[in-house]
């Protein structure tokens, strides 16, 4: 797995020793700090993600989740510390970000090196159940379809690391459940590492091998999720994990549950 190393823009700020790329990690973050206007949003953060691992990242609004994801994606390099990520990585955001003047298949291939043909896009679109929309204009897609097209654009890059920033946040409840199942299937089929930023504790427990809670600029808490798949919220262990993570996010259980 080829690796990208994101080092600080000012090498003098770099820590004395850098971690070396390791096939045992899909992501290695060492002593990462990112400040805005002199205020560190990420403050000496360490993180390892194994190849093929599904990690969900929770945290209060404004705690720095998207900032971390953008750094892993290589979209923000104004950092201190070291970030090692696979060269093959792809991102999908909450907004599908399709160019309205390009047909769906051209959006899927956007920015890919070489000149891959329509069939390559069509295959990725088929994987997300959207082959029939290959030649459509983005404005004719529903919200869920546009989000699936955005996923196809990520998949066509054959990523070793898939970065998802609230990809289901704008979808209605039913479409969201379908999209979650699709991501679960794709992850199992592709075997890539996934880092999913989400506000939804249930989504994190449904999908992830490990849930991280970000707070104070670091990973403040982590919980391995050992429930067998496919998972359902009816599992009694599910409610316990959900409550535990909500507590870590500063949300207390209602009084009657707390005293039960
Ligand atoms: N380009 C920027 N310039 C200045 N401040 C920024 C910039 N990007 C992010 N921030 C600040 O950094 C903090 C973390 O932002 P970030 O978007 O990473 O949070 P988040 O955890 O993803 O929040 P949310 O859950 O609400 O999406 C916020 O206080 C935000 O205002």
How would you summarize this macromolecular structure in one to three sentences?
This protein is of the alpha/beta class.
Keywords:
Rossmann fold, six-stranded mixed sheet, four-stranded antiparallel sheet, 10 strands, binds adenosine-5'-triphosphate, cell membrane, nucleotide-binding, ATP-binding, translocase
What does this structure look like?
Residues 27-241 form the ABC transporter domain. InterPro entries: AAA+_ATPase, ABC_transporter-like_ATP-bd, ABC_transporter-like_CS, ABC_transporter_ATP-bind, P-loop_NTPase. The structure is a single chain. It contains 8 helices and 10 strands. It is of the alpha/beta class and 260 residues long. Strand 7 (161-165), helix 5 (173-190) and strand 8 form a beta-alpha-beta unit. The longest helix has 18 residues, at 173-190. The relative contact order is 0.16. Adenosine-5'-triphosphate is lined by residues 36, 41, 59, 61-67.
């Amino acid at each position: 797995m080829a690796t990208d190393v994101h080092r600080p823009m000012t090498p003098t700020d770099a820590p004395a020793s850098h971690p070396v790329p390791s096939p045992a990690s899909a992501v290695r973050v060492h002593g990462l700090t990112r400040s805005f206007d002199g205020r560190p949003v990420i403050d000496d953060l360490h993180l390892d993600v194994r190849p093929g691992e599904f990690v969900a990242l929770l945290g209060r609004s404004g705690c720095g989740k998207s900032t971390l994801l953008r750094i892993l994606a290589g979209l923000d390099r104004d950092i201190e510390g070291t970030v090692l990520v696979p060269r093959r990585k792809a991102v999908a955001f909450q907004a599908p970000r399709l160019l309205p003047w390009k047909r769906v298949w051209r959006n899927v291939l956007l920015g890919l090196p070489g000149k891959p043909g329509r069939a390559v896009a069509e295959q990725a679109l088929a994987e997300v159940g959207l082959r029939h929309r290959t030649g459509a204009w983005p404005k004719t897609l529903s919200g869920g379809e546009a989000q699936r097209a955005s996923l196809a654009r990520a998949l066509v890059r054959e990523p070793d690391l898939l970065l998802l920033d609230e990809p289901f946040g704008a979808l209605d409840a039913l479409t969201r459940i379908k999209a979650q199942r699709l991501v679960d299937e794709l992850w199992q089929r592709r075997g890539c590492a996934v880092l999913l930023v989400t506000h939804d504790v249930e989504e994190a427990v449904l999908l992830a091998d490990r849930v991280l809670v970000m707070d104070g600029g670091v990973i403040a808490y982590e919980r391995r999720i050992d429930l067998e798949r496919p998972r359902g919220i009816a599992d009694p262990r599910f409610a316990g994990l959900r409550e535990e993570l909500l507590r870590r996010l500063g949300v207390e259980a209602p009084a009657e549950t707390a005293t039960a």
